[in-house]
Design a protein that fits this description.
Strands 1, 6, 7 and 8 form a four-stranded antiparallel beta sheet that branches. With about 230 residues, the protein is an alpha+beta fold. The protein is elongated and about 85 Å long. The protein has four helices and eight strands, in the order αββαββαβαβββ. About 35% of the residues lie in helices and about 40% in strands.
Amino acid sequence: MIRAFHALTVVLALVAAPAFAQELPRVITVTGEGRALAAPDMATLRLGVTTDGATARDAIAANSRAMADVLDRIESAGVADRDVQTQDFSVSPRWENRPNEAPRIAGFVARNQVFVRVRDLDALGPLLDAVTRDGANTFNGLSFGLQDPGPIEDAARRAAVTEAQRKATLYAEAARGTLGPLQSIDEGGASSPVPMARAEMAVAMDSVPVASGELAITARVRLGYQIAD
């Protein structure tokens, strides 16, 4: 009786397996990328002062005077304290190498670099020109961004979903099927703003010309759909 029961169970499993496999839904997974453009409303730059001195104290003193003038200029331009931050300060010897002589210290170099966030782009060019006149002689980057990137990121996400839906419909039709219910959504994230135009920082006599251009934010999404016959 026990053997007969086991045999019947095996037969039922073999009969049910193909039927169960046929009931599995067909699924398609696609990825979509969307991009949204926006004009920047903020700039960040890294500028600094580099000075030489016979001694470390001389180099630091000269640097401090010039940097104080630069910071005063930044403040007078309306830049808030929270948008200015010292990022690097260093003092190092300046070595001199002569033929047939051991290297010797010829002086010292002091460097001070600050990060500045400018929220008024109309003031950016005049500010760069002014701080250059006040003693800023090191520029290590200028980039543009958005003070509130949320809305443009959402626009990029919507565009990514639209693109993924378009591709899913295309694939389903090519496979002679019909796009069924949405099964899953996986977000790929939104990228940081990427400058679409170069920024010119050539120092002119009257003002520094700056081209802010456009920013592009991209978003990626993966959608899974059921395919109906």
